Amino acid sequence: MQAVSELFRKNIRQYGMIIALIFITILFQILTGGILLKPLNITNLILQNSYILVLAIGMVLVIITGHIDLSVGSIAAFIGALAAIMLVDLQLPTFLTILISLVIGGLIGAWQGFWVAYVKIPAFIVTLAGMLLFRGLTMIVLGGQSIAPFPKSFQRISSGFIPDWFGGSSLHILTILLGLALSLLLIWQEWKERRTQLKYQFEVAPIWVFVTKLVLLVAIINIFTFVLATYNGLPNILIILFFLIVIYSFVMNRMVAGRHIYALGGNEKAAKLSGVKTKKVTFWVFVNMGALAALSGLIFAARLNSATPKAGTNFELDAIAACFIGGASASGGIGTVIGAIIGGLVMGVMNNGMSLIGLGVDWQQGIKGLVLLLAVAFDIYNKSKTT
After folding, report:
1. Which one in 64, 97, 111, 218 has a CA-CA gap of 20 to 30 Å to 90?
2. 327 φ/ψ sector (left φ>0, alpha ψ -120 to 50, else beta)
3. Is 362 in a helix, a strand, or coil?
């Protein structure tokens, strides 16, 4: 029991949010009369929050470096508008449109990263200017009107599902098999990591805690994939999100670039003296954020099947809230990709659950603001306990 309490104490921020997510899910499952966790609603929950989760992955890197990006919602809207012109007016192929859009998003990130990293203008000011600039450009490009519809190939980014190669009728067999494969991969990875820690005589959790954790994770994965398999299977956007989470988690946890990002956010002067090229790291973090904002804009436009001048409104606030709720620190140096995803899911489940029980937008905004405040207060409290 002492081992469990020690494990929880060391990871209280992350585990606390996981427990909060489970509690909120159970609460709204009861309040909605079981609608929340129905296959159709779970699929809708994924589709409705996918673009915010993409933004949260990029935003957590920005926040770890000690900066903030207020422009991502406007960039998403601007890229959606450009993609609409390329697809509808110029009739460019979908793949080429996506590629050009991501490149433009990266260039926008480079533009903002230059001012932050090399001119040393605070990111708050630079991205606030970007928010106004690209919102205005969106309205100019669209002429104040929406552009629609998009080709089916583009819509499938956000609303399509992976095909079932095994031809399941009432059950999506490929989704079930992918869940099992992911479970085996997780077991192998966790066991490999534990053996490595034991080899170098690191402190590890007792074997029964390790096995219990694995059993719970495998159960969650397979229940989740089974529920989706009873509807249309895995959405395409979920596959995209999965690869983004894996890639960015690997970069932040296992690569030098990730260590440099954490070092920069922890103490910029110390990082610079240690040989970290702080300006270059900051610049590329904003380039990455621009590209992910572009991807978010494409996903949102594909789901909406139109580009509108009001697209992307408050996206930046939801992404920032997801990061802070998921454990990122406002002072930089702390945060994880998984934590940002958990924070985004907390926000998403709350939004969906409150809508299902009929709460108005005014109440929803107030409750979300209170949750964000409590999450940051919880973070500050934990820091004060460990210092």
Report:
1. 111
2. left
3. helix
The kind and range of the H/E element at 341 are: helix 337-356
- Reference 372, options 354, 349, 347; nearest CA is 347
Numbers of helices and strands, H then E, in the chain: 16, 0
3-state secondary structure at position 361: helix
Name the token pair of 76. Answer: 């998403």
Coil, strand, or helix at residue 204?
A: coil
CA distance 81 to 131: 15
CA 219 centroid distance within chain: 23
As a whole number of angstroms, the distance between CA 227 and CA 309 comes to 36
| Predicted pLDDT at 3 | 55
161 forms beta bridges with 235
Distance CA 366, CA 372 (A): 10
- Interatomic CA distance for residues 117 and 285, integer angstroms: 10
Pairwise CA distance, residues 163 & 369, whole Å: 40
- pLDDT attached to residue 168: 65
Contact in structure between 164 and 230 (CB atoms under 8 Å):
no
Helices assigned H by DSSP within 200-235: 207-229
Place of tokens 């985004």: 344
Q: In whole angstroms, how large is the CA radius of gyration of the chain?
A: 21
With 0.90 as the threshold, say if the pTM is over it. Answer: yes
The answer to whether the CB of 150 falls within 8 A of the CB of 302 is yes
Contact partners, residue 126, CB within 8 Å, separation at least 6: 112, 115, 116
CB 382 within 8 A of CB 374: no
**pLDDT < 70 stretches in the chain:** 1-15, 168, 379, 382-387
Provide the 10 A C-beta neighbour count for residue 248: 22
Q: Name the residue type at position 313.
A: T
Question: Which residue in 203, 213, 208 sits closest to 1, CA to CA?
Answer: 208
In the numeric block, which tokens belong to residue 29?
A: 């499952």
Q: Is residue 161 classed as helix, strand or coil in its secondary structure?
A: strand
| 332 burial via Cβ count (<10 Å: 0-12, 13-18, 19+) | buried
